[in-house]
Amino acid sequence: MVTYPRTDSQYLTEDMEQTAADLIQTICNTISCCQGLSIPEPNVKRCINNSKVSDHHAIIPTAEIAHKKLADLPDGERNILNLIAAKLILATADPHRYEATKVSVICENHNFSATGKAILNAGWKAFEIAIKEMLKSNEDTVKSGDEKTLPPLEKGQVFENVTSSVIEHYTSPPKPYTEDTLLKAMETAGNHNYDENADVEKKGLGTPATRAAILETLVKRAYIERKKKQIFPTAKGISLIAVVPDEVKSAQLTADWETQLQEIERGQCNPDDFMHEIVSFVSDISGKYNEKAENAAFQAQRTVIGKCPKCGKNVVEWKKSFSCENDKEKCGFIIWKSICNKIISATQAKKLLEKRENRSNQRI
Description:
Layout: H1 17-30, H2 75-92, E1 97-107, E2 110-121, H3 124-135, E3 177-178, H4 179-188, H5 211-220, E4 224-227, E5 230-233, H6 235-243, H7 246-249, H8 251-265, H9 271-288, H10 296-301, E6 304-307, E7 314-317, E8 321-324, E9 334-336, E10 338-339, E11 342-343, H11 346-355
């Protein structure tokens, strides 16, 4: 009942113009939240742009909705179908036009300003309000009466006996990410590095098909954690970001590579040149950061068990062992956590290092 969903395109192709126009009428006849809407001349051309469609066009309903009993759909599926159908209606409706007014006034040599809007043509927002009302949505709706308007004013006008007051407010810190807001942030990550007209086809991190999987991988590896609906970085994740080179953390790097891959697909870029660039990048990074990062945050996560009997450095706890941190001199001292199916605890390893012997008085 809808087209291929794993796409990031927001446009249709030229050959779909008549199909989309016919579909709008079908939506108004079959989709409950759009029934009764009158769209006299939908502007489908506004949604047509072949250059903005790569593998798949934007998600829209199909003609199958006219032959299905939509009331039998599960609530979740029906709501998603409603959203997709409503978005097509709004995207092809008239623009929302308003007149914005900004007024500057002077009082006791201080400048003040006020802004207001006067709706000239409600356009697509009128349909948005109607659809939300039919869905009985709890979301805030934007109505003409909600717009802040200014009274008629003239240049040089004077107001006498003006009353004033001072109100103190506090700013709120940014809210932690939820999965929804983080996925949206991933979609637009790095956009600020480009001009609006920059020729970059793939911006952001990941694709619609991979972004959710990226988050799941981060959770699985304990770099982030969920607390109810919110997502927070773990100490391990914060430490990783602290030591990863800035060049690798850049969302612009991902966008640049994705753009070059698109050019290779169209035959505009040589794949050998691209691979040479990747090899050079990895080589430069490896040479620049060939020494192990001495990061206090990571070291703090490793519990120090005692002193190494071979070189005197710290013995720290790892996932499968207690071993010497002296990697530079290849000390090699290690106590495995599992020996002959016997588990060695941190307390036992600490006693071994302190007393240099176990219960059988076998020295180490």
